[in-house]
Specification:
Length: 443
């Protein structure tokens, strides 16, 4: 995600469905909000879960919430460590934090430096969370162009944890981020000795350079990936790579192989993130048209713009291949002052269905059913009208019966989805959840 609220927006074609200053919802209930406070006043970003804790990223660090009271989580720890975006993942006793802004060094006391400075640092930071109430910073790894996001994949023997580091937008004036940057950085983290973590590979995913871009459509050039989602059970990963969507075989964790690549040169502008369905037969790609700052839900933007693209994974004698099925975009009208575009979400674990809860910035939270790939339909939603949040919700994920959301400006929200939709999911207990490291649910 790139927060960029400046720039042209479309004029509203109709009155907003939720008037400014009001709140509305359907089939879901807002239970609580934990406001931003203390030292962490920056933009709220991603969330990861483990046990009874949620780890919520913030451009100034991360917050640990105790979910014992699931309807009203308790903030128990704040860790100040500035460096956007601070997207966070957890695995056993390891927490990984992404830094995609040039810093004076790798410490939590660092200050900003221009990316043109050779001495500037960006990459990933590794923490020991064996005691979640006292996270300990143990290691950093500098990576090319920093770490906008990262995705974890354990080795098959469980001894090592691999982090696929996504970064993009090289520049000839950036010493540590040179064009063409068609790579992904792979960091190997020994689970029992994370201080030995190291960068082990930088495979080129786009030998042909990828999509060249189209300024007339605001469509981005491919120069690395924005986000990669792994699914270790199936040895697969899906990459949203600015101008291209890819499916990878990661059976060799250090040598991912692109096995299918798709482009949408009509409607998609910025391939932002990817989610598999539970049995890895579909991928939902998001298009972050306008970098997160554009009002695409005014009614004047087509329903294919700033939307999800749903792709089936077809099997043939030549292997697995991505095939386009449909688009999904929230049906509500927003004002021209509300940034609204597809963003981060996760599956709701109901066997036999493909259900997803997802953030849409100031478009709010949407729950949609894509069991029928060709005909996705919204089944629940929550929306704050204009003026209540300066940016809206970044990420909304389902964990052990509730949906939790990190808002860019107003903190951490908890939602209850109507039992008619998530009833079976309320019985599913997950020990951890990293939406960019998918694991299966059910039998």
């Amino acid at each position: 995600m790139a927060v960029a609220f400046a720039g042209p927006v479309a004029a509203s074609a109709a009155e907003p469905d939720v008037p400014p200053g009001e709140i509305a919802s359907s089939n879901m209930t807002h239970l609580s909000n934990q406001p931003k406070n203390g030292a962490l006043q920056g933009t709220g970003s991603d969330i990861a879960f483990q046990g009874k804790y949620a780890f919520a990223g913030n451009y100034d660090g991360f917050t640990v919430y105790d979910l014992t009271d699931k309807e009203n989580p308790e903030q128990v720890v704040q860790v100040y460590c500035p460096g956007s975006q601070n997207d966070v993942s957890v695995y056993k006793n390891i927490l990984v934090l992404s830094t995609d802004s040039s810093r004076s060094d790798d410490s939590c006391a660092s200050t900003s430096l221009p990316a043109t400075e050779k001495s500037a640092w960006e990459g990933i930071k590794i923490w020991d969370i064996s005691n979640p109430l006292a996270p300990e910073y143990v290691k950093s790894i500098e990576t090319y162009c920093g770490s906008h996001t990262h995705s974890l994949a354990p080795s098959k023997d469980g001894r090592d944890l691999y982090a696929y580091v996504s970064s993009y937008s090289p520049n000839a004036t950036f010493p540590d981020c040179q064009p063409p940057h068609d790579i992904v950085s792979i960091v190997k983290i020994p689970v029992k000795q994370p201080t030995s973590a190291a960068l082990v590979a930088t495979p080129n995913l786009f030998p042909d350079g990828g999509y060249p871009g189209d300024p007339a459509r605001r469509a981005s050039t491919t120069s690395g990936c924005h986000d990669i989602t792994t699914y270790a059970k199936y040895d697969l990963a899906a990459g949203a790579c600015m101008g291209d969507g890819i499916l990878m075989d990661i059976s060799n964790r250090e040598r991912p192989k692109v096995i299918s690549r798709v482009r949408d040169t009509v409607n998609f502008a910025f391939w932002h993130s990817a989610s598999f369905n539970n049995d890895a037969t579909k991928v939902v790609f998001t298009d972050e048209l306008g970098g997160g700052g554009l009002a695409t839900c005014t009614g004047e933007y087509a329903p294919e713009l700033g939307a999800n693209g749903i792709y089936d994974i077809e099997r043939s004698r030549y292997g697995k291949k991505l095939e386009f099925a449909s688009y999904y975009k929230i049906p509500r009208i927003n004002t021209a002052n509300e940034n609204c575009v597809a963003h981060n979400g996760s599956l709701i674990p109901v066997e036999g269905k493909d259900l997803m809860v997802q953030s849409w910035y100031q478009g709010g939270v949407s729950v949609f059913d894509f069991t029928d790939s060709d005909n996705p339909v919204e089944v629940a939603w929550f929306d704050r009208g204009e003026g209540l949040s300066g940016g809206g919700t970044w990420s909304t994920y389902y964990y052990n019966g509730y949906a939790y959301s990190n808002d860019l400006s107003i903190g951490f929200d908890t939602f209850d989805i109507d039992d008619s939709i998530d009833g079976p999911a309320e019985q599913v207990r997950q020990y951890s959840l990293n939406p960019q490291m998918q694991t299966s649910f059910g039998h």
